[in-house]
Write a structure and sequence with these properties.
By secondary structure, the chain is an alpha/beta fold. It has 19 helices and 12 strands. The chain has a 6-stranded mixed beta sheet, sandwiched between helices. It has a 4-stranded antiparallel beta sheet with strand order 2-1-4-5, covered by helices on one side. The radius of gyration is 35 Å and the shape is elongated. The two termini are 64 Å apart. The mean pLDDT is 80.
Length: 585
């Protein structure tokens, strides 16, 4: 297990370093400034020792010499502060540039991920990786840059200065040092897995909170508050357990290294005192050595803390890189054609598809749609209606068989051009933060105000838009803000009315609209569908009676096909569905 964790840490660290390498100038400058800061800091104890040696006894103090030394110390302190400030600015620049790059690439990857990945993961968990995990990674990385380089240079610099004073005392310090390194390494190896579990559970908690907050009306409507609280407590309990373990292992690092460092200081004090008594070093040099002992041990404490933070940072970074390394949606084939203006012909031959291996859904599906035909798709829940729409839009690729649009195999078309030839209105509405106009013009950003108003009037959205405080310039929050579900649906319909692509997909497009408005929308749809190939998914059979072809699906296959009158005459499955909605009512 430890070998696996160690390998994962090295792989993650290697990926982080590839991002850091882009900012080599700031990295190099930071290292140089760290060396300058340490050199100036380590020179101060020598000056202090010299000042001590100028105090020989009562009435034997060289005040002029001490004043000169104090002036030098003041200059050193100012230069050290300036170097540290610039070094920290460089470290901040590196850290936040790396974080910006990772977040941008992660978001770009989300945009290119296949829909099956999004469907298989909760939105909150994905958001947690891009936001919370990257923030944790930033904290660890910033601490690492701020303290790691300075700490390493301080350790080696201190040893050199100590060697210049006393080889014997320096040798005693070096002999004790590996104990501190062993303790820090032993504990650090056990913290990575703990922090990884903590990060994963934090993502699960974020996903659950988002789910509950986003659906609070449903939670309260079904009095699910107690169950939700119990589930939250369970997740929170696991997060507490993993966090306590991670914090426990990380927190004992510093006390353990401090104990070893105290041994170093005591060794320098005892050996140095005997050496001073024997005349080997002066009292001033002993004070310098004791100061160096403090400076030598301090980086071990800081580095142990940095290692702990880096364990957490690398665990979080690993989760982000897992997302970024997910297999992206397959690229368009080389030389893929751009479908400029589809003629409306759509053909499906021997199409087979399933979401999970071994779980059959659509098998050997055949369909030939002529230009301008209105094709309605009906059937019980889970029969494959929405799946068929996903395949037509190429949100999913077929397992076998072929779909052709305008006689061209779908795989030979660019996704962007294929989807631009479809206008899609779903049961689930989606509006982004912005003005009403921004949401309507999403598919045609260069539309004129006249075109926007005409589309809104055609979708019967104009009247309620004019009643809004700023009309078409009214800013709405994400997902529509205070608009009703029906009003949001009308805006989505207006969005399609504005583009008027050659093919339409209406998946329960009027499910959230009142009956009177629905009748008007149906008339608008009828005008919009003239000369356009249309696929209509509906549970309410009253909305599809005028369709040219009605496909009756069951268990992924078309079991009946024909127009409304023909299917009723067959007295089959469609007739049963129709009678269940109207006759019994």
């Amino acid at each position: 297990m430890s070998k696996k964790v160690s390998g994962q840490q090295k792989a993650t660290l290697g990926k982080v370093l590839r991002y850091i390498r882009r900012y080599w100038f700031y990295l190099g400058l930071s290292v140089v400034l760290a060396a300058v800061t340490v050199a100036l800091t380590l020179y101060l104890p020598i000056l202090i020792g010299q000042a001590v040696d100028k105090i020989a006894g009562a009435g034997q103090v060289d005040f002029r010499g001490i004043l000169v030394i104090l002036q030098k110390m003041a200059v050193m302190i100012v230069l050290t502060a300036a170097a540290q400030w610039i070094m920290n600015a460089c470290n901040n620049k590196i850290t936040y540039n790396v974080i910006r790059d990772i977040r941008r690439e992660a978001f770009e990857k989300i945009e290119r991920l296949p829909l099956k990945y999004i469907d298989a993961h909760s939105y909150g968990e994905i958001v947690s990786r891009v936001i919370a995990d990257v923030d944790q990674f930033a904290d660890g990385l910033l601490m690492g840059f701020t303290q790691f380089f300075t700490g390493i240079v301080t350790i080696f610099g201190t040893l050199l200065f100590m060697l210049a004073i006393s080889v014997k005392i320096t040798a005693a310090v070096v002999i004790i040092t590996p104990v501190s390194l062993f303790v820090a390494s032993f504990i650090a190896q056990r913290t990575f897995s703990m922090f990884k579990l903590q990060s994963e559970t934090r993502g699960e908690q974020t996903a659950f909170i988002e789910e509950m907050v986003g659906n609070q009306k449903v939670v309260q409507a079904f009095s699910h508050e107690d169950e939700a609280l119990e589930q939250f407590d369970e997740i929170n309990g696991r997060l507490q357990k993993y966090s306590l373990r991670a914090i426990f292992f990380s927190s004992i690092t510093n006390p353990a290294t401090r104990f070893v460092n105290s041994l170093v200081y005591a060794t320098v004090g005892v050996v140095g005192a005997f050496s001073a008594i024997a005349g080997g070093i002066s009292v001033g040099q002993l004070s310098s050595l004791l100061s160096y002992a403090n400076q030598y041990t301090k980086p071990f404490n800081e580095i142990s803390g940095v290692i702990t933070e880096l364990q957490n940072a690398l665990a979080c970074a690993a989760r982000v890189f897992e997302l970024m390394e997910e297999e992206a949606e397959a690229m368009d084939v080389p030389g893929a054609q751009i479908l400029k203006e589809a003629d409306g012909r759509v053909e499906l031959e021997h199409v087979c598809f399933s979401y999970a291996p071994g779980v059959k859904l659509i098998e050997d599906f055949h369909l030939a749609v002529k230009p301008g035909q209105r094709v309605a798709i009906v059937g019980p829940t889970g029969c494959g209606k929405t799946t068929l729409i996903n395949l037509l839009m190429r949100f999913y690729d077929v397992n076998s068989g072929e779909i052709r649009v305008s006689g061209i195999p779908m795989r030979e078309l660019t996704r962007k051009s294929l989807r631009s030839n479809y206008g899609m209105v779903l049961q689930e509405t989606w509006l982004r933060s912005g003005t009403i106009r921004d949401n309507i013009t999403m598919g045609k950003e260069d539309a004129t105000d006249e075109e926007v108003v005409a589309a809104a009037k055609a979708s019967h959205a104009h009247s309620f838009i004019k009643r809004l405080p700023d009309g078409y310039d009214t800013v709405i929050a994400e997902d529509g803000g205070n608009l009703s579900q029906g009003q949001k649906q009308l805006l989505c319909i207006a969005r399609v009315m504005l583009c008027l692509p050659p093919m339409l997909i209406l998946d329960e497009a009027t499910s959230s609209i009142d009956t009177r408005t629905e009748m008007r929308i149906q008339k608008a749809f009828a005008r919009m569908m003239e000369g356009r190939t249309s696929f209509i998914v509906a549970h309410r059979l009253s909305t599809i009676q005028e369709a040219d072809v009605i496909l009756v699906m069951k268990d992924g296959s078309v079991i009946e096909q024909g127009n409304h009158e023909e299917l009723l005459a067959k007295n089959g499955f469609y007739a049963d569905l129709y009678q269940s909605q109207f006759v019994q009512a």
